[in-house]
Each structure stands twice: as C-alpha cells, then as structure tokens.
Amino acid sequence: MAKDTFFTTNASLNVGGKLLDLSQAKVMGIINLTPDSFYSHSRFTAEKEILAQVQKMLAEGADILDLGAYSTRPGADDISTEDEAKRLLPVIKLIKSNFSDAVISVDTFRASIARLAVEAGADIINDISGGELDAEMFSTVAQLSVPYILMHHRGTPKNMHLLTMYDDLMADITFYFSEKIAQLKSLGVKDVVIDPGFGFAKNTEQNFLLLNHLKDFKILDVPILVGLSRKSMVWKSLNITANEALNGTTILNTVALQNGANILRVHDVAEAKQCIKLINLVKG
C-alpha cells in the first residue's frame, strides 16, 4: 500500500504538563463504572477488580484510561449528578494513588463532574455531547486547561436513535465540528480532539460511510479519536454478539488507522496496540 494512503498528524496533547505525542496512534482503554454499559466485560465496580483491570490495560500498553460513570448506550437511563460523582471520584483517586503516571480521561457531559474529576486527578475530559447538554462545559474546560474530546452527537442516549436524518452526513458533521472548535479556541481551549461519534444518532449505513470518509476531517487540523470497539455496527453486521466482536473491531480499527485516526478507544488494549504496530510497519 502506498504511503500517501495514510494520514498522520504531528499533533500532541498537553496532559498535565507532559506532551502526549500523537504522531503515532495511541490507545484509550475503556473502564466503565456503570452496571448497564452495553459490553458487560467492561463493567467494574469493586476496587480490586478496577485496580486489576487498570494494571492489565497499562501493562498491555494503554496510553489513556477512559472512565465512565454514566452509561451512554442507546436507551440508557439518566442518573443524578450525585450518583455519577459517587461512582467516579473515588475511582480516579484510587487509580492515581496506585498508578500515579496513568493518564485518565473522564467520559462525562456535565461541567460540574468535569471540574470535580480534574480536581480529583483526571487529565482529559471526554464529552459525548459536544457541550450541548451542559452550557457550562466549554467555559469549564477552558478554566481547567485540560484537553477536551469533542464528540458529534444529537439528542440524548434516550432518543438519539431517532435522530439520524442528515442533509449531507459528512458536511453536516464537519460544520458541527468547525463551529464548536472555533468556540473552544475563542475561550482559550488549546487541545481539542474530535470524535465522530460512531453509533450516536447514526444508523449502520451512516457509520460505515463515516468510517470510509474519516480522512475528510483532517481539514479541521485536530486529532481524531475513533470509538468502534464492539459496537452494534460490528456485531449486527456480522449477526453475532458484542462478546464475539473483537475480530470485527480490529478490522474496522485498521480501516480507521488507514484513514487518519490518532486515538483508538477500545475495550481490548493488547489487540489495538498490535493493530497499530502492524499498521506502522506497513507505513514503513
């Protein structure tokens, strides 16, 4: 394969004063602190289980750990800010006290949780709502001076599956990102990563179109995070279950890397690291 079919960036993220180089793709390992996330093997609640999973992911080469205490699967129920904080904050402190160098991302759309999480030791805010579910999120991230992952979405986890009509999928999402990146930059947010939001207000056909045209987002000149791991676009397309979707995930992660992904958000760290290593060897 010709080298010019790969798309890379020399971008880096300032994570607590240290630069995370994204010129080669990085892996974000998913740790769900919820009882109802769609992939049961990613759910952890007991301290021993959490620490064992963190140790495993770091040993396998995870560059970032993404903690989520609010399930964003389609149809997920709402929980209170208090419940989200109770699930999340002790775990951030637990991880940081045992693995001080671990880079922690927090998957939340609430500005108050983002602030508390960073105060507890989190390094990155990963917002599925692109700031639309909490008007204070952008200004809060600016004040916190942490990298911000800006995802494309519509609606809420309860109704997003009904909101899949677009005039032009790629043009609409690119415009969404360009407007929000401009807002964030105007507030002083220096490190923005975009996430196209596979499965969020997009049907299966749209998900594959998005993946095929992922490189189009390079015009925005920011790193791209891709979260395809064990999602329904994999297992429904293959008529299998999420538990059986690792091979399909790896195949789609390969396509994502070829099309410019800088961060892979995954349940299975070792396999994602292997995928990146082989892609880098193909690039030469």
Percent of residues in helices: 25-40%
Distance separating the two termini: 10 Å
Mean pLDDT: 91
Strand composition percent: 5-15%
Provide the structure class: alpha/beta
CATH fold-level label: TIM Barrel
Could you characterize the architecture of this molecule?
The chain is of the alpha/beta class and 284 residues long. It has a single domain (3-283), classed as Dihydropteroate synthase-like (TIM Barrel, Alpha-Beta Barrel), CATH 3.20.20. It has nine helices and ten strands. The chain has an eight-stranded parallel β-sheet with strand order 8-7-6-5-4-3-10-9. Strands 1-2 form a two-stranded antiparallel ribbon. Strand 3 (26-32), helix 1 (47-59) and strand 4 (64-68) form a beta-alpha-beta unit. Helix 1 (47-59) crosses helix 2. The protein is globular and about 40 Å long.
Top keywords for this entry?
two-stranded antiparallel ribbon; disordered N terminus; alpha/beta; 8-stranded parallel beta sheet; 284 residues; globular
SSE blueprint:
Elements: E1 12-15, E2 18-21, E3 26-32, H1 47-59, E4 64-68, H2 81-98, E5 104-107, H3 111-120, E6 124-127, H4 137-144, E7 148-151, H5 169-187, E8 192-195, H6 204-212, E9 225-226, H7 232-238, H8 246-258, E10 263-266, H9 269-283
Parallel strand pairs: 3-4, 3-10, 4-5, 5-6, 6-7, 7-8, 9-10
Antiparallel strand pairs: 1-2
